[in-house]
Specification:
With 127 residues, the chain is mainly beta. The protein has a single domain (7-105), classed as Metal Binding Protein, Guanine Nucleotide Exchange Factor, Chain A (Beta Complex). The chain is 6% helix and 32% strand. The protein has two helices and ten strands. The strands form three sheets. Strands 4-9-8-7-6 form a five-stranded antiparallel β-sheet, with no helix packed on it. It has a three-stranded antiparallel β-sheet with strand order 1-2-5, with no helix packed on it. The mean pLDDT is 89. Bound molecules: zinc ion (ZN). Residues 11-13, 15-16, 59, 75, 77-78, 80 line the site of zinc ion.
Length: 127
Amino acid sequence: MSDRTPMRVTCHCGANELRVFLAAGLEDARRCDCSFCRRRGAMNVSVRETDLQVIKGDALTLYQFGPRGAEHYFCKVCGCYTHHRRSSDNTDFGVNVGCLEGVNPADIDPVPWLDGVSYNPGVKEKT
Ligand SMILES: [Zn+2]
């Protein structure tokens, strides 16, 4: 059962804003070591598609890579990653913990790592 407290997700410049309900609160916060996430460096939490609403999204842009085609959204003004549609379950999104208003990612410890290298075999796994 998802947490029914709405949370605001904002990029740094404020051009984009989402309203979400976290699927499992901050309990499932994790990092991923795939070739993209290791560069992006953001911790994320799960939000179901029905629990995610884009309030302002004119400055959102999309990045995709590899055959599985997850949708990675970020702000084209300030560059912040806000959320992504997972390729493993396309009704599920990951939301950047650092963009959740009122949450300091430094307060979440330890943070487990997801094995993204194995999930995206052969996709630009240069280090
Ligand atoms: Zn922005």
